[in-house]
Amino acid sequence: MEEPEMQLKGKKVTDKFTESVYVLANEPSVALYRLQEHVRRSLPELAQHKADMQRWEEQSQGAIYTVEYACSAVKNLVDSSVYFRSVEGLLKQAISIRDHMNASAQGHSPEEPPPPSST
């Protein structure tokens, strides 16, 4: 009769021991320790990724600024085409006047130069 009783007591002891080990292994302080280990292992890599992302963001912002500036310059060139046409007209008029003056200086009297335009 002692053997089944001993087995029962042994089973109770081992169950209590297992429960104690389980509670101890899952205690909040152990969980916090494991969390701290994980953070300590993964933090350097995460910090490096963050630094890389910041560097890429700065490079991207620089490229975006450059593209926006180039687009603005092209738009300004397109807008200034009116002024280029005006300068072209004035240059043609100046060449015509020069040709007329050269012809007058040589004794010829070519047709009258066109009057100055208001463009």
TrEMBL record:
Its main location: membrane. The keyword Chaperone does not apply. The keyword Membrane applies. One of its GO terms (cellular component) is lysosomal membrane. Transmembrane segments: none annotated. It is found in: Lysosome membrane. Keywords: Lysosome, Membrane. GO terms for biological process: heart development. Belongs to the BORCS8 family. This is BLOC-1 related complex subunit 8. It comes from Cebus imitator (Panamanian white-faced capuchin).
